[in-house]
């Protein structure tokens, strides 16, 4: 009788241990996904802030001219989806696992890629540029090719994950002394 009790107890312990191991796997996968989403969101927010800072340069060549900006001028030059140009020391379209800029030649594995769609809201509101920021990554945790077509990212949600952020960049008018 005691042997049967011990075997039943071991069976119950085995089932419980299997449940704990399965739960641990789910927690690990969920934690990895949450970390990836947090890093991608931080990259998108960083790009929104870069565009806002770029908006401070807006108007240097004229009241509504975007020529003095680094990225916002793309809204007039090539409206629609654009590949973000790398500006050394001022931003790169690619980021590593921690969300830091990954510049070619620095050895960092590219995990996140940033795509922008900049739309100038002229003639209704010429002082405003709408920025749609998408940060994409490979769900299989492979290095990301930032040259991938944004339409391909949209067409393959099982392969690519993405975070979207929409921001407005408003031209700041200088204060006029009374």
Poorly predicted sequence stretches spanning 5 or more consecutive residues: none
Q: Please state the average pLDDT score.
A: 81
What amount of the residues lies in strands? 15-25%
Radius of gyration: 24 Å
Listing every helix as H and every strand as E from the N terminus to the C terminus, the arrangement reads HHEEEEHE
Q: Main sheet? A: 5 strands, antiparallel
Overall number of strands: 5
> What is the end-to-end distance?
99 Å
- Structural class, judged by helices and strands? alpha+beta
In helices, the fraction of residues equals 25-40%
Number of domains: 1
Oligomer: single chain
Q: Provide a count of the helices.
A: 3
Q: Specify the overall morphology.
A: elongated
Protein name: Type IV fimbrial biogenesis protein PilV
InterPro entries: N_methyl_site
